Task: structure prediction
Amino acid sequence: MAVMTMVQAIQSALAVKLAEDDRVMVYGEDVGVEGGVFRVTQDLQKRFGADRVFDSPLAESAIIGTAVGMCIAGLRPVVEIQFSGFIFPGFNQLLTHVARYNNRTQGRYSMPMVVRTPYGGGVRALEHHSDSEEAYFAHTPGLKVVIPATPHDAKGLLISAIESDDPVIFMEPKRLYRAIKQEVSEESFSIPLGKAKVVTEGDHITVVSYGAMVREVQKAMVFAAKAGIKVELIDLRTIYPLDRETLARSVKKTGHLLVVSESPSFASVASEIMAAVSEDVFLSLEAPPARLTGFDTVIPLPHGEMLYLPEPERIFYAIKNSVEY
Amino acid sequence: MFNPFTRPEIPMLRVLDADGRITDEERKPPLGDEDVLDAYKRMLFARTADAQCISYQRQGRMYTYPPNLGQEAIAGAFGRVIRSEDWLVPAFRELGAWLQKGVRMRDIFLLWMGVEEGNRMSDAPRMLPPSVPIASQLLHAVGIGKAMRYRKEEAAVFAFVGDGGTSTGDFHEALNFAAVWDVPVVFVIQNNQYAISVPLRMQTRSRRLADRADGFGIPGIQVDGNDFFALSTAAMAAREYAIEKGPVLVEALTYRRGAHTTSDDPSKYRAPEEEKIWETRDPLRRLRLYLESKGLWREEDERALVDIYKQEIDQEFQIAEGYPATRPEDIFRHAYREMPVDLKRQQAEFEKYLNWKEHYQWQS
Result:
């Protein structure tokens, strides 16, 4: 075991898979010599060679489009889109090819690729560096969407994502890249996709979250505990496929649901969770399902972004409102 | 004053003139009479199949179809050069090359009948299905090429695109990535001078699309796309260059004699006089005149062969027409390699509904 940040844990997962499987290729802008702008791929080129870990020219459509070709030829590319806000030139490849190729060719060519990308706000970055785009991908049939909230989960989930025969959008909450340190095994281990984690058990309300907001919910739980509210915190870990079973089991017990996410609200992952829980355990609900998300506006530049991102006090406020309904 | 912006004209590669005479012995490809005859027959088969497709579509037995009329020499010449270890990354108007790669007519029919199974093309090794989003497939070719270099395979990728596709970002990104990564990709532009209704002069100010290659530091040539011999020379040289050095761009200048698809009406955007001119430059006519002049082909050979082809094609069409109806499970089966629980639930609920629909006492 070693103490790792999320950056180190992701790097460890990439190193494990590069060593285990010669079909794994890691590339993107600045990932080779520099080791990525966040240093996630640091030293990987030195360790595994420039034919396995390399820089690409600057073009997101081509990064994802060439990964389609590599999958067709039997490789397992893990590409990096430097910031999720720049993924949109590659959106066409993701939607028209990556998500559909297995279906289009009736199983002849699968797309075992991982698109890693840092996402989300709270790091005082430039415009287009703070957005949360998970709903676009979760809405797209054929893709899986994974978002870790801890270093340990990041490593285990990324290994599963690389081993998955389906394409995975692996979104990394950059706010947590170096914010948390945790004991993480240096060995190979995997965490199954599609399984949420009950982080803390509680009886009064189920709070579902993912990514950087999990830690904010944990801070809010300190206020909740003082107010005598026992929160059951669920970290989704995989956005799609959604672990409806774990959500339903929890809400059946607590009767209250709050979803916390930093993305806009309309047609969001939060909306989907509310719908799923309403369908599955409607009669167990003692209050309307609630969500606390970003606003349906552009996320402000750093000067105002903390107003936009759900903060612990506001999460506690939403918890209290649901419990006292 | 000296004008630094002028550039010399570079002639197009041409070997066979419009009357079927060899004009450039030196650039003629090393093909024997039997090879040329075989190529002609394959092009004739493709043209016959193409006409049958239009006919089936008109009868309402097939959906939208993009005809190949006038462009058969490109697929014919490249189809001969593309080996089983090479990859074929099509756009959608390369029927002859698909057939030579091993695709069966029944699958082609299924494809244009709207059956996913047609896209599998499992009889053709190393072949991708056609790409509907224009030029997006060129990047796949580059990725395949990168994988081939990684595995040290001695083979090439042949990727097709039309003139319209050269305006897209993906075209430029593909050529640039291919150049930087030195991958063995032969990019073939079928310049048929129209992107649906938009003529080439509205698409680009490039004098020749082949010139685009210069900007990426790779070789590019323009070849007469209705000249089977010139195309064969270009295809062979391109394959060799791609494997040994890196990507090349081949612009094959041709003319789409038919409609863009069966939903299109070219009379709205081009003059009949223009179509007449290109009829005289037809690639099959040119090669047939050559073969006739060498005593290798007669008109009666052609008629007899077309009849045989029509029967073969119709048999394949009947097999395709007999393909079973889509079942609910077919919609779900290949969405993922590992089917998510949610999809299993959706399929089960849909089947439950279908069962209910069948047994409910509907009031008439």
Remarks:
- The domain at 197-323 of chain A is CATH 3.40.50.920 (Rossmann fold).
- Chain A touches chain B through 47 residues (CB under 8 Å).
- The CA atoms of residues 123 and 175 of chain A lie 6 Å apart.
